[in-house]
Amino acid sequence: MGCCSGRCTLIFLCTFQLVTALERQVFDFLGYQWAPILATFVHIVMVILGLFRTIQYRPRYIVVYAVWAAVWVTWNVFIICFYLEVGGLLKDSELLTFNLSRHRSWWRERGPGCLREEPAARLGPPDGRALVPGDGCALEHSYVEALHSALQILVALVGFVCACYVVSIFTEEEDSFDFIGGFDPFPLYCVSENPPGLLSKQASFSPGEEGTAAPADH
């Protein structure tokens, strides 16, 4: 396959996915978003699996990557609905933190153009971290998170289609190779060939046989 093949495209997509997932994981850690942290960690493992198995021509593992890409799309759709408060979801709830902390998205206080407000002394949360959103944000944190998820959905959909294409190509190549006897332990061309030892034995016994058959003619 050339560099413009579906395999090389899938390798590039997996690499890009890995970079974007690591970037997202960093900001999820900064915001103590435990549910996205776990989901992104599994996503990173699956992307690495798909990347190396694509390099090694392993179509079965690429199928696993394609299935996970569909699951990843579903998860990011939920994240978009969560931050845009679709379907009764509330972005200020503690759903993504498993009710373990009062933290919210890191972009809530440090988004583009935000001016962070520190809470007054002795009036803040017990952990001493600001929970109030920043003022004057050029883009609210909910839209920043939604754009992150939208990017993940776009790349995952392209990766899903490309993975299905690569699996079909690998399967066709394996079928064609098996058809010509590539995986046959006893290829057809070996049937018509005589072992070298048998040929040498026939050559050594041929003069004796002619000598013993000569007196019978007399």
UniProtKB/TrEMBL annotation:
Cell location: Cell membrane
Transmembrane regions listed in the UniProt entry: 31-52, 64-86, 150-170
Bilayer disposition of the protein: Multi-pass membrane protein
Extent of the signal sequence: 1-21
Superkingdom, natural source: Eukaryota
InterPro entries: Na/K-Atpase_Interacting (IPR008516)
Entry keyword set: Cell membrane, Membrane, Signal, Transmembrane, Transmembrane helix
Family per record: Belongs to the NKAIN family.
Name of the protein: Sodium/potassium-transporting ATPase subunit beta-1-interacting protein
Organism the protein comes from: Ceratotherium simum simum
Gene: LOC101403056
